[in-house]
Design brief:
118 residues; alpha+beta; 3 helices; 41% helix
Amino acid sequence: MTVVVHWREASPYGPSLEFVCQVGDMGGARALARRASAMAEPDKTGRLSASDPLGAVAARFPGELLWRPVSAGGGKEEWRVGADAARRFREADVERFNATQEAARERRHDRRHHHHHR
């Protein structure tokens, strides 16, 4: 028995990711989501029928997590393979996000502490 599960997350840090996998059961999908540090857990509503085109994609890599960034414009990127790769992609986004936040905090801090009196 295999299931194909498809789900998306909404990330505050950068591109949200879309996931699909062909696994033995929902537990397998959840385990992949955890390995990928996904921000959303798959659930039964994400189960796809055998005829869904995404099922064919997932079937090429059984047991692997397939993922792609969801662009704001709705364009579709190529599917990438691997929960670990998804986690690294996400970690890079989080680091970029945190660096941007930190830089903004420092700029605000500098503005408050350097009033130039003419």
